[in-house]
Amino acid sequence: MDHRIYFDNNATTPMDPEVLEKMLPFFIEKPGNASSRSHAFGWEASAAVEEGVRHLADLFKVGEDEIVLTSGATESINLALKGLADTWKGIKNHIITCETEHSAVLDTCEALEKMGWRLTYLKVDQQGHIDLQELKDNIDEHTLCVAIMWANNETGLIHPVREIGNICKKHQVFFMCDATQAVGKITTHPQDLGIDLMAFSAHKFYGPKGMGGLYVRKSKPRVKIHALIHGGGHQDNRRSGTLNVPGIVGMGTAAELALRQMKTDEVRLRELRDHLENRLLMEVSETKVNGDREDRLPHVSNVVFKYVDGEQLMVKINSVVAVSSGSACTSANPDPSHVLLHMGLSELDAKASIRFSLGRFNTLEEVNKAVDMVVEKVAELRAESPLWQMFQAGVDLEI
Ligand SMILES: Cc1ncc(COP(=O)(O)O)c(C=O)c1O
Fold this sequence. Notes:
Layout: E1 5-6, H1 17-23, H2 40-60, E2 67-70, H3 73-88, E3 94-98, H4 103-114, E4 118-122, H5 132-138, E5 143-147, H6 161-171, E6 174-178, E7 197-201, E8 212-216, H7 234-237, H8 245-283, E9 287-289, E10 300-305, H9 310-317, E11 321-322, H10 338-342, H11 347-351, E12 353-357, H12 364-383, H13 386-392
Parallel strand pairs: 1-11, 3-4, 3-5, 5-6, 6-7
Antiparallel strand pairs: 2-8, 7-8, 9-10, 10-12
Bound molecules: pyridoxal-5'-phosphate.
């Protein structure tokens, strides 16, 4: 039996077995192209796509024609921001985002900056929150769009999307929300909250990798975006390319399961996460949770083990426990997390921080086993750490 413990669900979730089961026939027995109109294989593929999209529309409480299917959140974010910018170029020239966004947003914004767009990066406080007054103050008549994520991938912090939506509406700017980490974990109804574009990715909510989508508001206001990918005119010319039928079936099933199971998952995972966090805080001295502990996704905990090198800690535990020190997309990069640095952590503390992200299949037994191991390994590392010894001797290491 696999004894490994997977606590890196913000990087990606395992697929739910029910999702795989629904996808399998569409690889061999039902191979149709959803655009083939002349035979039953095509019709059954097209019906499966429609059903998948319907489940997503139900999860988001939006219209089926408001969803564009993509390869994942990165593509969706590119489509939203570049597609919007291309539609409005020459009329607007300014976009507002936040310093703690995922690289999918930050790098897309940087690309737009190179094309001549003016970018404003909102700062965050120590808890990870933006200042809504700063947001209002930065909107001017040239502002096209505000791009703020729903929940942060590293800390789980939930931004006040309703308030941001209201500000955007009042000033008539578009609100693009990267909801990649929120979808399937908490309720995500973009229309209720003034969100005009919302990016999501199936593999973050127990669906397949390489599959995602973008919600694009159809009325009040109707949002127009130019396509990034041209070809056969699929999806109303919004994103060409043969539809990934098994992927769409998988994402739709994952959405159906989320709708059914989200509340139960939320309660159970919050209990497990709180147990993990409380034990770590009680059993390891000089340990703190990074960011706001209230406005937070239920399954995420980002903890700083002071005077411990996070990378070394991960090396000591990673044959059994999988955690991470930042975003999976930047995990090849040894620099400390930009999110934690922007929240005001020192480089030392950012490097001493570990993200635990739990998921639907984790158990209390796994939490206890992982905590036991972390407690033991932190003690081992501190016993060998000159920094820890200096701290014990009363040297102020914060200066
Ligand atoms: C907040 C956030 N946005 C965007 C992405 C990109 O998602 P994908 O890799 O599925 O394109 C991720 C993935 O880690 C994420 O956490």
